[in-house]
Design goal:
The complex is a heterodimer of chains A (476) and B (214).
Chain A lengths: L14 H41 L15 H33 L9 H23 L13 H20 L11 H26 L7 H33 L9 H12 L14 H13 L1 H12 L9 H27 L2 H7 L3 H31 L6 H33 L6 H42 L4
Helix pairs in contact in A: 1-2, 1-3, 1-12, 1-14, 2-3, 2-4, 2-5, 2-6, 2-12, 3-4, 4-5, 5-6, 5-7, 6-10, 6-12, 7-9, 8-10, 9-10, 10-12, 10-13, 12-13, 13-14
Chain B lengths: L3 H25 L7 E2 L6 E2 L5 H12 L18 H4 L32 H4 L3 H9 L1 H4 L12 E5 L21 E5 L1 H11 L12 H9 L1
Antiparallel strand pairs in B: 1-2, 3-4
Helix pairs in contact in B: 2-7, 5-7
């Protein structure tokens, strides 16, 4: 898929310039994508184990009572591998590819490619050793920031080295015209150091008095999803969807409003986690208000894409890419709607802390973020390798199993969350009974987690054969 | 927004709003809350943790208890269920966390809330049995066993006074006993000190609640 060929912009780079861009990106982006996918496989495997442990607490019997196999140690690892191993690396790769292609410039300059490659390896080393440290009992205990200080400091520094050049590309582009996707990449790449640095500094490196930590933890969780990962997913939608579908954005002028809306509200939305919690009342109110108002930028973004009629694409991989991007868009609408609903104080009283909170998280990080990233992965790898490399059968299977697994998972989580939530606010129902209401949904969760694990295995296999093919049949 | 400096300034300003509103506000206001003196007892509130409880906090963090347990009693304006369930006498307020090294507020209630577990379940022996074999004291419990916080040792002479009381299928083999490790003891000391049962100026309803419940 050619990111620039359908561009209405007159000074669009031609095919040979695109090749130059892709060649300059090949090594770092293949490293990022390859590592991202293998962490995804491991993260979904651990999530499957966790799902089984929810219905059989001491599964497997032989490892029962072994400290490093405890639920509380595996749970943060599954989440961190997903967020830092898979999502962040895939978002880095997608953002860099989109920024470089839209700028029409190879990635070169201030920081050498070799430095970036070392930074990527360090990132992965930090993810690996950090996760092992959590397993060994060295977790900081702060949600999503469990990695020990040396690992989080390495992640922070590596990110700066990997992302810096992509930010500069904005000013280094060939065309005067700016695309919405380019703003989103700059915003996303600037936000990670900002929020990860702030949160680590105040919560783990030099922790504040704990009475101040709650709102900062919530701010971090919200901004990590809405200001770091989500803008890159939106860049993918804005860069790829119009081209794959052969359309112009509907009401593009409103996209600017959508951009600032997401950036502004994304900073406050995490507070919805603390409705009713030990924070000043205005903070909880701000959580509700921002969750509801976020529906406006989400509406604008949806209108940009869904407002115009689509053109069928003949290309299979292009079709799959589009399928992932569109499902990401639907998940975004679902995430916005569920988030707004669950932030209303009375609804929150029931749904908070149940599987419905998990459903919102899944809709954001798996749906609105990971699905579009899969779309970029399928679109970009053939360009980076310079040939068709995907096994279409495997790609199709990955698509369908992922989509079915994801939507079923969200559906079960929402229904299960609703039922346990309604039981939890009724003190007559004992806590043990609440657990028995949740039980069938935890069984179903094992099923959906199995599907998602199989899907990521298929993706991993497909990517392996794509890369091995390049080794066996060198580039044209 | 055609130039990077303009775009970056815009992004910076927008990011700054929530950063000032949430991060800087919390650090400068909530981060400077101080203990208060209780007029009735003369004690400073919230009370200090014992050294053992402080060590136990580390165990709480490394075992990842936060994956299933919250530590917050929610405001009655949102739901009264937390208090009705007996999870606390009053809603939690920021000052309650003053003595913690990390605020373990949590985001999932696969297990019960623990903000006041020390007040609700004050018996250390119960906690040891529960951590070793949750189902032995709470039938049908979905909590995994934390057996690695205990040692199975041969009884030397007399049975140790701190041996965990276990019966039926959970009992150790004859001649053996189950003793908590230092981590296990510290964790239980921490759990027992989790109680927001004192009055604070911003949460004085505790006394009213106590008065009506007794």
């Amino acid at each position: 898929m050619n990111l620039s060929s359908h561009s209405p912009c007159e000074s669009a780079p031609d095919a040979s310039e695109n090749r130059a861009v892709d060649v300059s990106l090949r090594l770092p982006l293949l490293l990022l994508f390859g590592n991202a996918v293998h962490w995804l496989v491991i993260a979904t495997l651990i999530s499957l184990v966790l799902a089984i442990k929810k219905i059989a607490p001491d599964f497997p019997e032989i490892l029962s009572g072994v400290s490093w196999f405890g639920y509380g140690r595996l749970a943060p690892i599954a989440r961190d591998l997903f967020l830092y191993g898979w999502a962040s690396q895939a978002a880095l790769a997608a953002g860099i590819w989109i920024a470089a292609r839209l700028a029409g410039r190879p990635l070169e300059g201030v920081i050498k490619n070799s430095v970036v490659v070392v930074a990527i390896l360090l990132w992965n080393l930090a993810v690996l050793l950090g996760s092992l440290a959590i397993l060994a009992g060295y977790s900081t205990g702060v949600e999503w920031l469990e990695y020990p200080n040396w690992a989080s400091a390495t992640l922070f520094a590596s990110f700066l080295l990997i992302a810096f050049r992509a930010i500069l590309l904005f000013d280094y582009r060939r065309s005067e015209r700016v695309e919405v996707a380019q703003w989103y990449v700059v915003a996303g790449f600037c936000s990670f150091p900002w929020i990860y640095g702030t949160a680590n500094l105040l919560l783990t490196w030099k922790p504040l008095q704990a009475s101040a930590q709650g709102p900062i933890q919530a701010w971090f969780a919200g901004t990590f999803q809405l200001l770091w990962l989500f803008p890159i997913a939106l860049a993918a939608l804005y860069a790829l969807l119009p081209r794959i579908r052969g359309i112009h954005l509907h009401r593009r002028n409103l996209a600017t409003l959508g951009f600032w809306g997401v950036l502004f509200l994304g900073g406050w939305i995490g507070l919805a986690r603390l409705i009713g919690g030990p924070v000043p009342a205005w903070m909880a109110a701000a959580g509700t208000v921002s969750s509801v108002f976020l529906l406006i930028p989400i509406f604008i973004i949806s209108m940009n894409f869904l407002g115009s009629s689509e053109v069928e694409s003949a290309e299979v991989i292009g079709d799959l890419s589009r399928g992932f991007l569109l499902n990401g868009l639907y998940a975004l609408i679902g995430a916005g709607a569920l988030g707004a609903l669950a932030s209303l104080p009375l609804v929150s009283g029931a749904l908070q802390f149940t599987d419905a909170s998990e459903a919102t998280y899944q809709l954001w990080v798996f749906g609105a973020v990971s699905l579009p990233l899969f779309g970029v992965l399928y679109a970009s790898i053939p360009e980076l390798l310079g040939r068709d490399c995907w096994c279409v059968t495997l790609a199709r299977r990955h698509f369908w199993i992922t989509i079915v697994g994801f939507w079923l998972s969200v559906g079960f989580l929402v229904i299960g969350g609703l039922i346990t939530g309604l039981a939890l606010i009724d003190p007559v129902v004992t806590f043990r009974n609440v657990g028995s209401f949740a039980y069938p949904f935890h069984v179903l969760e094992c099923l959906t987690q199995t599907l998602l694990f199989i899907a990521s295995l298929i993706l991993g296999g497909n990517l392996l054969q794509a890369l091995a093919g390049n080794y066996l049949f060198p580039k044209r | 927004m055609h130039r990077l400096p303009t775009l970056l300034s815009g992004i910076f300003l927008v990011f700054l709003t929530s950063w000032i509103g949430l991060v800087a506000y919390s650090a400068t206001q909530l981060g400077r809350l101080t203990p208060v003196a209780d007029a009735d007892s003369g004690a400073t509130l919230p009370p200090h943790y014992s050294g053992q409880a402080i060590a136990g906090q580390r165990v709480y963090a490394s075992e990842g208890c936060i994956a299933c347990h919250t530590q917050q009693v929610r405001q009655t304006s949102v739901t009264s269920a937390d208090i009705d369930r007996g999870w606390g006498l009053r809603p939690s307020v920021p000052r309650d966390y003053l003595r913690d090294s990390t605020a373990f507020l949590g985001n999932s209630r696969l297990g019960e809330d623990l903000a006041n577990v020390g007040q609700r379940l004050p018996d250390a022996a119960w906690h040891f049995s529960h951590l070793y074999a949750p189902a032995s004291v709470t039938e049908g419990s979905e909590m995994p066993s934390y057996r690695h916080l205990f040692l199975l040792t041969k009884i030397q002479g007399e049975r140790s006074h701190d041996a965990v009381s276990l019966t039926g299928i959970y009992a150790p083999p004859a001649g053996y006993e189950v003793i908590p490790t230092a981590d296990g003891r510290n964790l239980v000391a921490y759990l027992l000190s989790l109680k927001h049962d004192y009055p604070l100026p911003e949460a004085d309803s505790v006394k009213k609640n106590q008065a009506t419940s007794h």
